[in-house]
């Protein structure tokens, strides 16, 4: 399955609670909780580039499946991790205490972040 494309955020669940659990200060949470970000994914075989634009705040992550890389978390921190492909349509990684699963079904991209007992889901649609 090819993930390449641009995706616009349509909805999110528990994002504010996730940011709070990640330790972000309230003023940053207030700025980020209502963003309608766009994700551009460029896939070339096993190599991926994610470009996330949240209200003109750009975050870029590049990785090759199965290889250790440095990734920027949704909270802005940098950590080392390995991204794996599961079931042909899920990109899965564990970054410190956070698990991230990005799943593509047709034109819908669903990213689920789990941090402790807080689960956040962000749903985007291919544009």
Account of the protein in words:
The chain has a single domain, classed as Lipocalin (Beta Barrel). Helix content is 11%, strand content 60%. The chain has helices spanning 15-21, 26-32, and strands at 5-13, 38-44, 47-54, 57-64, 68-72, 78-82, 84-86, 90-95, 98-105, 108-115, 118-126. The longest helix has 7 residues, at 15-21. The two termini are 17 Å apart.
CATH class: Mainly Beta
Radius of gyration: 14 Å
CATH architect. name: Beta Barrel
What fold name goes in the CATH topology slot? Answer: Lipocalin
Strand order of the biggest β-sheet = 4-3-2-1-11-10-9-8-7
Main location: cytoplasm
GO molecular function: lipid binding
Protein name: Fatty acid-binding protein, liver-like
InterPro entries: Calycin, Fatty_acid-bd, ILBP
């Amino acid at each position: 399955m090819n993930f390449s494309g641009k995706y616009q955020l349509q909805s999110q669940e528990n994002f504010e609670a996730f940011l709070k659990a990640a330790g972000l200060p309230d003023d940053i949470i207030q700025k980020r909780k209502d963003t309608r970000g766009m994700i551009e994914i460029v896939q070339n075989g096993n190599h991926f580039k994610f470009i996330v634009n949240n209200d003109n705040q750009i975050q870029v992550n590049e990785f090759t499946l199965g290889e250790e890389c440095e990734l920027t978390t949704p909270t802005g921190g940098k950590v080392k991790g390995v991204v794996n492909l599961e079931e042909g349509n899920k990109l899965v990684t564990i970054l410190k205490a956070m698990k991230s699963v990005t799943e593509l079904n047709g034109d819908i991209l669903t990213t689920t972040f789990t941090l402790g007992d807080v689960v956040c889901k962000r749903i985007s649609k291919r544009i």
